[in-house]
Design a protein that fits this description.
It contains 13 helices and 13 strands. It has 427 residues and is α/β, with parallel strands linked by helices. The protein is globular and about 75 Å long. The protein starts with a helix and ends with a helix. Bound molecules: aspartic acid and magnesium ion (MG). The site of aspartic acid (ASP) has 12 residues, from α7.
């Protein structure tokens, strides 16, 4: 929705298929790499309102963008009145969530004029509770009832409201969640998510040039890849559609013929030929290795270790265990300034024979439901890593048998991914 041309492209896509009935829009994004998203500008407005009581300066470029879009689209409605009313409300209400939600609001009002579908305000049917937590079941009831009344409609993404009408937002990128909510509410045959790339790539194109697009993957594979940083779709967007087994199709607005990536409930029809679906990873983890002989027979050992983490407010990612060893994989940022205290508390709690902390590690997940059908995957993975001249710190096959997670040093991250890609993805 970045500019008038993009809005026109979206309108053409919607109109080309009468089954495309409800459209969830986001705020105008970047028009070029150096550009600023409207939502980011709105965060600046929120700060300006807090300090100055108004957002005259920060709102000006936003108003200009919408003015230009409306003019270029040749729409005849009073955009000035809409802009000045919106700005006054932002200043009056003075709440960040309200302010930053207005990008989607304005975008949806404009797009509904362009396409001629009614504007359906998410504040009325995307429900948050008083604490600001999303209420999925009430939302589904309200949204379903509302959408039933309209054959089609334009819905602003990213925000909703409490029963009292206070605006709340999802986390950044949350329009994807609103799309999934609407799809579930009408039991849609398909949730299309139109974006500016051709779908999910097998791996980060910044590391492997011309990485392939994933044609099909399952909800579970997506969860694993998204957790590891593949960020085309908001990681929470699958929850609403998963309840009703609605497939998601990621498509490119600027290349509408491209089939994109299909995200399906499972491979019930066809197990994929590829051993792996995707490779993703993240840097800056720490592993705490605790060794104690006869750990396996010491009742309550894991509980004591985990209580220490709980008391210190530290969450962990994985916990691979051996007979006399237990490792905790923890995000590096969680340990800042806490590492010495953590070590001391763990020593006091379980008296280990040995406790080692390794920092600066990257985790790499190779994900694929085809993996469990093929033997030798772990062996191929290990040899790919050793061919890259990299030392493997840890290897952990998830009990779901659809992922293997390894850890390597941060500096070996990119070359490991390249080597894994070469091993598993046919040229
Ligand atoms: N506009 C919001 C953001 O920038 C939500 C979205 O784009 O999905 O995060
Ligand atoms: Mg998005």
């Amino acid at each position: 929705m970045a500019d008038a041309a993009a809005m026109r492209a979206v309108a053409a896509i919607v109109s080309s298929d009468p089954d495309r009935r409800y459209v969830v829009v986001s705020a105008p994004g970047k028009r070029s790499p150096g550009d600023i998203k409207v939502t980011d500008q709105l965060f600046v407005c929120a700060r300006e309102i807090e300090t100055e009581g108004n957002c005259e300066k920060a709102f000006a470029p936003i108003a200009e963008r919408f003015r230009a879009i409306v003019a270029e689209l040749g729409l005849s409605f009073d955009i000035e009145a809409l802009l000045s009313r919106t700005r006054s409300q932002m200043e009056e209400i003075g709440e960040e969530a309200f302010t930053v939600s207005r990008g989607e609001y304005l975008s949806a009002v404009v797009f509904s004029r362009l396409i001629g579908y009614p504007f359906l305000d998410a504040a009325e049917f995307v429900r948050f509770d008083e604490e600001g937590n999303f209420d999925a079941e009430t939302t589904n009831r309200l949204c379903s009832a509302e959408l039933k009344k309209h054959a089609n409609g334009v819905i602003p993404g990213f925000y909703g409201g409490t029963q009292e009408g206070k605006i709340c937002t999802f986390s950044r990128g949350g329009s994807d969640i609103t799309g999934a909510i609407a799809a579930r509410a009408v039991l849609a045959g398909l949730y299309e998510n139109w974006t500016d790339v051709n779908g999910f790539l097998v791996t980060d194109p910044g590391i492997v040039k011309n990485a392939r697009t994933i044609e099909v993957l399952t909800y579970s594979e997506l969860r694993e890849l998204a957790y590891m940083g593949a960020s085309v779709l908001h990681s929470e967007a699958i929850f609403p559609v998963r309840i009703s087994n609605i497939p998601i199709n990621i498509r490119n607005t600027f290349e509408p013929e491209n089939p994109g990536t299909m995200i399906v409930p499972d491979y019930s029809r066809k197990i994929p030929e590829n051993v792996i679906t995707g490779v993703a990873g993240r840097k800056n983890f720490a592993v705490i290795q605790i060794e104690k002989s006869m750990m396996n027979s010491e009742i309550g050992f894991a509980r004591k270790v985990l209580s220490v983490l709980e008391e210190m407010g530290i969450s962990f990612e994985h916990m691979p265990t051996g007979i006399d060893t237990m490792s905790l994989v923890i995000e590096g940022s969680q340990l800042e300034g806490k590492i010495n205290e953590l070590i001391a508390s763990l020593k006091a709690a379980v008296h280990p024979d040995c406790l080692v902390v390794k920092e600066g590690l990257a985790l790499i997940a190779i994900v694929g439901q085809g993996m469990c059908k093929k033997s030798g995957t772990a062996a191929r993975l290990c040899s790919a890593i050793s061919r890259a001249g990299v030392n493997l710190n840890m290897i952990d096959q998830g009990s779901s048998e659809m992922n293997i997670i390894i850890s390597v040093r941060n500096e070996d991250y990119e070359k490991s991914i390249r080597s894994i890609y070469e091993e598993f993805v046919p040229a």
